[in-house]
Amino acid sequence: PLSDLVIGLEATSIYGDSLVYALREDGSLGRFQRKIHVLNPKQVRKFKEAYPDLPKNDWVDAFVIADHLRFGRIAKEVYMDDYRYQALRTLTRSRFDIIQNLTREKQRFANYLFLKCSGIAQAKDIQNTSATTIALMERFETVDDLANADLDELTAFIAETGRGRFADPDAAAKAVQAAARGSYRLPKTVNDTVNQAMAVSMRALKEQVKVLDKAIEQQFEIIPNTLTSIPGIGKVYSAGIIAEIGDIHRFDSQASVAKFAGLVWHKNQSGDFEAEHSRMIKSGNRYLRYYLLEAANSVRRCDSEFRRYYDLKFKEVNKYQHKRALALTARKLVRLVFRLLKDNRLYIPP
To answer: What's residue 341's pLDDT?
Structure first.
């Protein structure tokens, strides 16, 4: 009798999730050992190229997917044995999307900042999208208001909004006023609309990140892990990594985790020739890659071994130094993450 059932479908963002849940939970299929594969549409399209002159319709697409499953050499079945990971993934992916939106909003805010106060936007020692800069733009409606503000009051305001981050608030206040006095002036009507545009979304997005971080930490409490023992990786980055990996035992090696995250490079070699420069592959789990890169950037500031490795890779080239060094540091971090989760042990710095 038939005992195994292999089901395949193309990835359709969130639209296929409900079908995967239904197929997994359907009692009428309970007598089968089910394996459900969610295939990359690019993978299916490339496989279909082996069949010349096939038409494009639903029946043909289903046949190609089924033949691909019979042929083998496909990714492991979708991991859904523990819904805790899926619940955590919902939060961490939502946070990822908000961070992308926040990055775009920061660039938009920087553009408006140049319109309102070009001197501050161009000053190298003033961060364009810091909480202090945002507060200054909300507090002072025009550049002239900022340039002519009482220095003592401005110093106190910067010290309060900076929350102790400025070693010399008085010097910071003088730098801000000097930048304001050297800025272009806008007509009042234009200045008012710029103020309205600047006040719209920055704070709202930052509040959303705080709410999600708190929810992620609460959900993460029910999943045992050892990643938070690594200096620089807090609960949020650990949650983002574990949510995408799931059960570490479904991966055979750290190399398979790196490939799943897309932290591998194309190899260009023929005979005695091997290309000196190679590009990172474009496939892979972009969420896992993001959290690994962010975690690596944090770890290299807190751990001497990762800092030494990052500095070594940074000095090896003259182009894309930070980007390359960070990607290689994240690849090194994958090996540590795999071993800690596989052995269920804490990190001991060298």
So the answer is: 94
Q: Are 202 and 106 in contact (CB under 8 A)?
A: yes
Amino acid at position 206, single letter? K
Q: Map tokens 């009798």 to a residue.
A: 1
Tell me the Cα Rg of the chain: 26
Q: Are 111 and 256 in contact (CB under 8 A)?
A: no
Amino acid at 131: A
The Cα–Cα gap between 246 and 79 comes to 7
The model's pTM: 0.79
Q: Give the span between the Cα atoms of 8 and 58, in whole angstroms.
A: 14
Query: How far is residue 332's CA from residue 238's CA, in Å, rounded to a whole number?
Result: 16
Q: Which bin fits 270, alpha (ψ -120 to 50), beta or left (φ > 0)? A: beta
The Cβ of residue 176 has, within 10 Å, a number of other Cβ atoms equal to 27
109 burial class (0-12, 13-18, 19+ CB within 10 angstroms)?
Answer: buried
pLDDT single digits (tens) 5-30: 888 888 887 788 888 888 888 888 88
pLDDT at 74 over 80: no
Q: Is 344 helix (H, G, I), strand (E, B) or coil?
A: coil
Nearest to 326 by CA among 309, 304, 347, 302: 309
- What distance in Å separates the CA atoms of residue 126 and residue 138, rounded to the nearest whole number? 16
Whether residue 211 contacts residue 70, with contact meaning beta carbons closer than 8 Å, is answered with no
Alpha helices, H only, the chain: 17-25, 41-48, 58-71, 83-116, 118-122, 131-139, 143-147, 151-162, 169-181, 188-198, 202-220, 235-245, 254-261, 286-302, 304-314, 321-343
Note the pLDDT of residue 97: 94
Distance in angstroms (rounded) separating the CA atoms of residues 172 and 151: 10
> Which residue's structure tokens are 């071993």?
339
